[in-house]
Amino acid sequence: MSMFLDTAKIQVKAGNGGDGMVAFRREKYVPNGGPWGGDGGRGGNVVFVVDEGLRTLMDFRYNRHFKAQSGEKGMTKGMHGRGAEDLIVRVPQGTTVRDAETGKVLTDLVENGQEFIVARGGRGGRGNIRFATPKNPAPEISENGEPGQERELLLELKVLADVGLVGFPSVGKSTLLSVITAAKPKIGAYHFTTIVPNLGMVRTQSGESFAVADLPGLIEGASQGVGLGTQFLRHIERTRVILHVIDMSASEGRDPYEDYLAINKELESYNLRLMERPQIIVANKMDMPDSAENLKVFKEKLAANYDEFAELPQIFPISSLTKQGLAPLLDATAELLDKTPEFLLYDESEMEEEAYYGFDEEAPAFEISRDDDATWVLSGDKLEKLFNMTNFDRDEAVMKFARQLRGMGVDEALRARGAKDGDLVRIGKFEFEFVD
Predict the structure, then answer these.
(1) Sign of the Cα pseudo-torsion (89, 213, 99, 64, in order)
(2) What tens digit of pLDDT does each residue of 165-189 get?
(3) Residues 6 or more apart from 187 whose CB is under 8 A from it?
(4) Of 105, 136, 339, 343, whose CB neighbour count within 10 A is largest?
């Protein structure tokens, strides 16, 4: 089984805030002791950190749930609970993080040491020392901690390479990678010897250097799942230059020009924007019989079928086996890289807007619906947050929550929808009677 894993789905849960405390001063010789309950501590965030030592998402194959610690509860003497430490999750360079529910891209982690908070911890609840007023100098009110953010994430690893090698199986991509870099990919005389992307560093004679990725062989129909399909084509999305390797000896009975068209069609089917990347055609296996004649025919077909106003891609005849023609190919690749900018991987429609953790003023504070059992159901971010942070063990806190609902207009809205005295109202799993 391959130890390379480039996709994963995980669950993350930030820590809840600690509950606030209800406490009172009871000291000898201190009359009229007031409230003394402290606030709860902040819950821990879940933070992704890029680690250049990781190469795959294999760590997420068996560990799919990540939960940060909750904050400590508030204490007496007005002392705050301790805030929880953040949970650090290490990911490889080139990891794209998406929200599984919306499909939006949260972040693209490419720099070593780069950090991103994927789930924010809840703030601590306030203790009763916060609720003291001249009218109520000894309140028995405290807040529960705010729940931490919880979400399901999709992780995609796209290797960081400047140049991608594409082509049919057995055209010599792995051999080429092995002779221009120190990489040692598996090489065999059968299709799909390469079943995972291989990466290597190239240094040209002029001192230029760049990273090259050898991708598993494509075949016609890959975009419909034939062969290895397009499961590894995501790794070419970060590349700036494509080296299109073609078996010019036609040793397997295929026409080199038809191979060229078929692979480009699969690239286009996977992602039209891949065709924006400049290509260099690598005419491999030129040491074989008929290769020279096939190359001549290939150039004629390419010129005849190319847009007369478009610039023809460069063609470099090489032999990976005898190492002929490699230096001009690598120099041309380095030169093309110098003048080719980075390609934008995601447009604005794919990116999640910058997170805002307050309340949207324009969004309704609550929504009312009717369940099948005739129970009125209240929902909405603001209402649910108030509910979760209410300590229902304290009568004063319950009365405060009732006043908050009335202030939000919940009573009037229920009455306008036809709610009558004694009807059941539900928030989450909590039920109470509507009193007109």
Answers:
(1) negative
(2) 998 888 888 889 999 987 665 554 4
(3) 174, 175, 178, 193
(4) 105
